[in-house]
Amino acid sequence: MGQEPWPTELRLSEGGRMLNVSFDDGAQFALSAELLRTQSPSAEVQGHSAAERKTVGGKRNVAIIAVAPVGNYAVRLDFDDMHRTGIYTWRYLRELGETAPERFSFYLEELAAKGLDRDRPGEK
């Protein structure tokens, strides 16, 4: 099996509202802070099972305030809402990039189904 694509650049733009990720195979993704925050791999968001997963509202204007390396396999993203427990592996960032439109659409459906929205804080 070949080596997995490796990130060559991580760059914040739009005042921390976008994370641009480039990989050594030429793939590039612009990931919104809102998507990254609401899809955080942290136990706080994902829980310890599918039943514990939380849908987090009110993150339309969230921004990333820091990107910190975690070993040579991931980064921790710190958000301006003080969430900073998610470890985003290179594989997970790639997966988010490849599936961002579908994930965001599903997120919007979840918000609506749970009576939440992108502008008011809340979680269910």
From TrEMBL:
It comes from the Bacteria. Keywords: Iron, Metal-binding. Signal peptide: none annotated. Residues 11-94 form the Gamma-butyrobetaine hydroxylase-like N-terminal domain. One of its GO terms (molecular function) is metal ion binding. Pfam families: GBBH-like_N. PANTHER family: OS02G0197800 PROTEIN. This is DUF971 domain-containing protein.
